[in-house]
Amino acid sequence: MTKTACSISFVTSAIVNNYAPLLFSMFQNSYGITLENISVFIAFNFGAQILAALIFPKFIDRIGYRTSTAAALLLAASGLVGLAFLPDLLPSPFIGLLAAVVIYALGSGIINVTINPIIEECSLGSSEKTRSLLYSSYCWGYVAVVALSTVFFNFFGLGHWKLLTCLWAVVPLFDAALFLLSPAKTKKPDAIGSDASQKSGISLKQLISSNIFIGLVAVMICSGASEHTMSQWASMFAEIGLGVSKAVGDFAGPCFFAAMMGISRIIYTLSSKKIKLETYMLASGILCALGYVLAALPTVPAVSFLGFGLCGFSAGIFWPGTVSLAARSFPGGGTPMFAALALTGNIGAAAGPMAVGIASEAFGSLGAGLLLAAIFPAILAAGIIYHMKNKKTVKN
């Protein structure tokens, strides 16, 4: 039951991060939201998740994983309901949308901190395989968000988006109840992932004093930027930059991206014993950079769609792979390590899409912004090379 609850929590994160981007064009038309405002939404979404990773680990330490995760899921549900109603209740639609984004993002940020330690605890020695499999739940949740939302809008019209938003809020509500009924343990977070002989976990000070961990932090930032830059802008770019219909753009853009990302994670899950993680991530970094180049040059829409898929397939391993490398190198890292990785991953997830939005405004083309985003997976590949040359296991 605990693993099922963890899987659904990843689906909740997929809803939080990827449902609103499907509505960006509608927000522009209905509320007068600008491209700059949209960049602010993206930044505040991941910025609030960063804030959660900074503030809440101490409270999680006291309250325990199960209760903390259930509370986070209730926050996510509240934010989604707020997305439907706050724009009309508050004087400014922009402020209403922004408030809703911050509420559900705080919930998602807490989930990012709590789920990885729970995975470490219940994976029974196969945390890398379990983590990759559970992270694929995020991808399939992403696919479901795009596919079911597109079908809903085709049948009932985009004007009923508020109803759909409330329906999506049922997912975190159900998962909160599931977590409260699950047998998830609540032992001290710092002990999770520690060797039995260790009396306490590695401190945050020890982590940040390690060049290996700093290198992984850089990889994690680029992981967040590589994955979420495409996920946040794919729908709008397909519709505006490629000139296809919203339904075609959403299926061939973000939905294809998410499906390929999920396939990538399942492939690694099934063959993790045969494939060296660092090699897989290095090759994926190179392929992802190529994918961004193909996606950003919309001379032929089919080539751009191929780029979306290549980005998704290659980015699939970035986030869970980086967490696994850190857990392997710092087995006593515990909550401070997972919180730091969640924080830095969300920094990349906020900075990458925002940088593309700013560049797109400057160049007058979203394609130009996406082309510049190829630098994120390129830097990630360099970081993996550094890790391969310098890696070692660090114990307290």
Key attributes of the depicted protein:
0% strand, globular, 396 residues, single chain, mainly alpha, Growth Hormone, Chain: A, 17 helices
What's the CATH first level?
Answer: Mainly Alpha
Number of domains: 1
User: Under CATH, the topology is which?
Assistant: Growth Hormone, Chain: A
Which bin fits the share of residues in helices?
over 70%
**How far do the termini sit from each other?**
33 Å
Strand fraction band? under 5%
The geometry reads as globular
Give the low-pLDDT segments.
186-200
The CATH superfamily is MFS general substrate transporter like domains
Assign the CATH architecture.
Up-down Bundle
Q: How many strand units?
A: 0
Mean pLDDT: 84
Task: Tell me briefly what this model is.
The chain is mostly helical.
Task: Please explain how this structure is put together.
This protein is mainly alpha-helical. The protein has a single domain (2-390), classed as Growth Hormone, Chain: A (Up-down Bundle). Helix content is 81%, strand content 0%. It is built from 17 helices and no strands. Helix 7 runs antiparallel to helix 11. The protein starts with a helix and ends in a 6-residue tail after the last helix.
Topology at a glance:
Layout: H1 2-18, H2 24-31, H3 35-55, H4 57-63, H5 65-89, H6 93-122, H7 127-156, H8 161-181, H9 204-208, H10 211-241, H11 246-271, H12 277-296, H13 301-315, H14 318-329, H15 334-363, H16 366-372, H17 375-390
